């Protein structure tokens, strides 16, 4: 009898009550926890600190990395691209194993701790620790990428289809708020070190990296304490985890090929993500190179984008409920095309501020709505949600690699970063075409019904 009670309790732990407010809030706190990495490490303090300490009188912007010479910014971009490529290959296998064995929260924890500890290790980043610091920088990116995938896969499990837009928007909103809160704390140390009696100029940014890791791991305990591990798809335990992964991946791939809407959405998502993600990662560099805004103004711009993204995510969720997801995505992609054209023509900082506000509004919306739209197209009550979301995640990561490479190549080829911005419009146009085809597929399916 005692054994039966234990089995029942364990079974209940693996069940998720959909649309439960506590579960949804707990899940959203994972975005709150890890978005600090995206803002502090990817977008603001780390890039500024990295450029400053790797630019010297003796060598200019050249650095030595395990005996090879690189331009400093190229080295960090190579490290980031390498991290994205590694995860693009690894995640489909790992997610398939997680689905098959029902242990996706274990993977979520692993990547979270890896990313958080790597950020904390960046506290020791100085010029004489460059090699190890670049490795930690790449590991932090890999931790972020992996954690996001396994977190995203919970969306169809915690919310019914009609609530997924709202829940996805809630997660992004928590992320934007959490990242801004920690960013402001870090800025106090970075911009006003004299308030705290800090003499070492390198200490405030290094302390920021440490705080990101602590924040990331600490707030992740909220979803970890509530979300279940998942239900194994088989009672048989195989010792060949790679075979398990490929077997599960092949099964999901066969399902995906049969779902026209899912294939159509992934194609459109791939192309417009090239534009969205590249703009998000390259915006600060574009502003500095074309308008010479300076660090303080760039920080202000990034904060504007983060804050405006919160109502943007909520607004798109509201509009999707009234007009439909694909219609709203098409509208937002058209606005992105307009932003590329406007960005090509800007000549002063005030125009850039207005562009940043628009980008922030649609950035939160398109990310949130893309995640929930994909979730809605998945087979209902599927046990393969992590594997399905791995295809979504890999699509986005490959789009980032191609988008960033195209952006850099066009600038190298033309000598003008503005041409890189206008070229991004072509990615959005292709994505818009595939969204139109997706809309046509949806209409055909409705007629059949």
UniProtKB/TrEMBL annotation:
<feature type="transmembrane region" description="Helical">
    <location>
        <begin position="110"/>
        <end position="126"/>
    </location>
</feature>
<feature type="transmembrane region" description="Helical">
    <location>
        <begin position="416"/>
        <end position="438"/>
    </location>
</feature>
<feature type="transmembrane region" description="Helical">
    <location>
        <begin position="326"/>
        <end position="344"/>
    </location>
</feature>
<keyword id="KW-1133">Transmembrane helix</keyword>
<protein>
    <submittedName>
        <fullName>MFS transporter</fullName>
    </submittedName>
</protein>
<feature type="transmembrane region" description="Helical">
    <location>
        <begin position="298"/>
        <end position="319"/>
    </location>
</feature>
<dbReference type="InterPro" id="IPR024671">
    <property type="entry name" value="Atg22-like"/>
</dbReference>
<feature type="transmembrane region" description="Helical">
    <location>
        <begin position="350"/>
        <end position="369"/>
    </location>
</feature>
<dbReference type="InterPro" id="IPR050495">
    <property type="entry name" value="ATG22/LtaA_families"/>
</dbReference>
<feature type="transmembrane region" description="Helical">
    <location>
        <begin position="207"/>
        <end position="227"/>
    </location>
</feature>
<keyword id="KW-0472">Membrane</keyword>
<keyword id="KW-0813">Transport</keyword>
<feature type="transmembrane region" description="Helical">
    <location>
        <begin position="78"/>
        <end position="98"/>
    </location>
</feature>
<keyword id="KW-0812">Transmembrane</keyword>
<dbReference type="InterPro" id="IPR036259">
    <property type="entry name" value="MFS_trans_sf"/>
</dbReference>
<feature type="transmembrane region" description="Helical">
    <location>
        <begin position="390"/>
        <end position="410"/>
    </location>
</feature>
<feature type="transmembrane region" description="Helical">
    <location>
        <begin position="265"/>
        <end position="286"/>
    </location>
</feature>
<dbReference type="Pfam" id="PF11700">
    <property type="entry name" value="ATG22"/>
</dbReference>
<feature type="transmembrane region" description="Helical">
    <location>
        <begin position="171"/>
        <end position="191"/>
    </location>
</feature>
<feature type="transmembrane region" description="Helical">
    <location>
        <begin position="132"/>
        <end position="150"/>
    </location>
</feature>
